[in-house]
Design goal:
heterodimer, A: about 140 residues, mainly alpha, 5 helices, B: about 290 residues, six-stranded antiparallel beta sheet, six-stranded antiparallel barrel
Chain lengths: ~140, ~290
């Protein structure tokens, strides 16, 4: 699914959503799995996406409890900046490895549109994942 | 005895009545009675007949419904099979068209040996990231594909093979920022370098400032540098950007290949790219 030449980073969206719903260990596990799957499928040098994904997940965990509202506000407010950060980090790693990068063009034509698109998709994905999370880990009631 | 005699009398009487009726009817004396009976019995007959017809009709409808149901099931099955057949034929027609185009291309360019290939699957065939433009094709080292071999469609150059496994090859597309190709404009023979950009566009760079480049000019590979064969179509100039402070002109190029809809491609297996660095190193070592 491409909109205006870009497609949503589905793996990143899932990792951000799941990390915001669970603790650091769970988030890092899924970040590693998501990052590795991208690294295996992509033509980028191995590790570029895993590393960027782990950094993003650490920031999600750091933000838990620091942003107003603990449900949908957290992932929605984080998706745009973290998408931007994820792709910037990946692009930076590629740049360090010798790939030519036109930074301004990349931000204007790809990174910003992708971050916007990811934010939109998160609105749809998060409630679904939240339900899955409640099903897998039902909240314990105490009296 | 009395019972037997009365029974014989009864049978004889009935036979006699029948014969009498027959005789009277033959002479037409029975017609008024018959008409009277018919008038009296007509409504009853009608009711009985209608009921019987209704019952027969209901049986008939029931049988028809069953037949229609069976026929409907048959037609549905036929429609489904025709739909599948139609899809298959449309797919074959499309494949046929593509292969004909590729055949025409190979006939027009007999200097190359070609290996036909198709993308394994679109969903996993392209790079998952927005930052890279790779496509994966379902031929690899076992089919004679090697790194740096050019990949084309009937519309023009797609890119070059950057990694090869036994059954799979990774192709760096022209529109990737890491891709650069030495090119020449078909009519004016102006040279330059075509580079890809992250937004999927192409530009022709390093065009000498004193050369004239016009929108509509066709851009071909020049063969310079030894990475690609010459005369492969890349695209058409759409806009020329000439700024006073720049040493070279830049032109936007609209690629002829639709990089979002790649299905069947050709790998030019006969072309051996020249590795200048390795050759220079060899020459230096030989000189020493």
């Amino acid at each position: 699914m491409k909109i205006n030449g870009v497609h949503p980073d589905l793996v990143l969206i899932l990792v951000i959503a799941w990390s915001s719903l669970n603790d650091l260990e769970e988030g890092l596990t899924w970040a590693l799995m998501g990052g590795l799957s991208l690294d295996f499928i992509s033509g980028a040098p191995f590790g570029v996406f895993s590393l960027a994904m782990l950094i993003v997940t650490l920031l999600v965990n750091f933000s838990q409890g620091r942003i107003l509202g603990s449900s949908i506000v957290l992932p929605l407010s984080l998706t745009f900046p973290l998408s931007l950060l994820f792709n910037t980090l990946a692009l930076f790693f590629l740049y360090l490895l010798g790939w030519p990068v036109a930074w301004i063009e990349s931000f204007a034509n790809v990174l910003f549109p992708v971050a916007l698109l990811n934010s939109g998709v998160m609105v749809l994905i998060y409630p679904l994942l939240s339900s899955v999370n409640r099903f897998l880990y039902p909240p314990h009631l105490s009296y | 005895m009395t019972a037997i005699r009365s029974r014989q009398l009864y049978i004889g009487l009935v036979i006699g009545l029948v014969l009498l009726g027959f005789t009277l009817d033959q002479f037409g004396y029975l017609s008024p009675l018959k008409e009277l009976v018919q008038v009296v019995l007509a409504p009853v007959q009608d009711a009985v007949s209608t009921t019987a017809q209704d019952i027969a009709y209901q049986f008939e409808i029931s049988a028809d419904i069953q037949a229609l149901h069976d026929r409907n099931t048959e037609l549905e099955a036929l429609a489904n099979s025709l739909m599948v057949e139609n899809v298959r034929l449309a797919d074959l027609e499309r494949e046929n068209r593509t292969l004909r185009q590729l055949l025409n291309y190979t006939r027009n360019n007999p200097q190359f040996i070609y290996e036909t290939t198709t993308i394994v699957g679109r969903s996993i065939g392209f790079d998952p990231s927005n930052l890279l433009y790779f496509v994966y094709v379902d031929v690899g080292a076992r089919d004679g594909v090697a790194e740096n071999m050019p990949v084309i469609t009937d519309r023009g150059l797609v890119g070059r093979v950057t990694a090869v496994s036994p059954n799979l090859s990774q192709v760096l597309m022209l529109i990737d920022p890491a891709s650069s190709v030495n090119v020449v404009i078909q009519n004016s023979r102006v040279t330059g370098v075509v580079r890809g950009h992250l937004d999927g566009t192409l530009t022709m760079e390093r065009i000498p400032p004193d050369e004239t480049v016009n929108p509509g000019d066709i851009v071909l590979t020049s063969g310079l540098g030894g990475n690609f064969p010459d005369k492969l179509v890349i695209g058409q100039i759409t806009e020329v950007i000439q700024r006073d402070q720049d040493m070279f002109q830049i032109a936007r190029v609209r690629p002829t290949v639709d990089f979002g809809k790649l299905e069947t491609m050709l790998v030019i297996t006969s072309f051996e790219p020249v590795d200048f660095e390795a050759e220079l190193l060899e020459a230096q070592e030989a000189g020493n």
